[in-house]
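Researcher: Structure prediction, please.
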Amino acid sequence: MLVTVGDKHFTRGKSRLFSMVWLAMHLTDALAITGLVMRGKIDLTNDKQAMCIICSSLPLEILFPIIHPMKLTVANTKIDEIILEIKAKGKTPVPGDHIIEEFTQIYNRMIYAVFLQFFEFHRPHIQSVFGTDTKGWPQIFQFAWLIRNGVAHHGGHLNFTNPNYPPVTWHTYSYSPADNGKPILGAHFTVSDMFAFLFDLSDELDAIGAPMPN
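Model: Predicted structure follows.
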């Protein structure tokens, strides 16, 4: 079920996405802190800061907490609960005085690695349920396979080796062999869209009884 506006909670040992969100949150935090330090805008006293990541066609934005998670981890304090705030698109003021294209390229590659780790853990179970021919998989799992294939083998670009492969669709996004070479993450599909997809994918993995990650 597609994520909606509101707080989304992830609990260690109970939430399928906890480890993935934990890692993504720390990568986001580390990169954000570095950027703030380099720009001379760091404020380590404010534990309510967040990085806003905006969806492309979905009417949503996701706020990842920054500063506070890394402060806890550096203090050797275990994080057992993570809350991501999901807001309606356009609700968070975003400073317009800083160009972040290069920052985004680095961030995208970090998130690719997080996604790949999550998918590869679940791939054996998906194949045990639906077989090894991806064309027989439900669309949401085909979409995950398409992202995985592009990340693992094609430098983060969409790639169908079969020119007759039918379109793969999730929500309003649909890709076909005509999209070969298109970056997976870009203006058409952002990191925020990726996480919205993962929230949906996690529900489907629960539905087919996939094992929980450690």
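Model: The two ends are 24 Å apart (CA to CA).
Researcher: Thanks, that helps.
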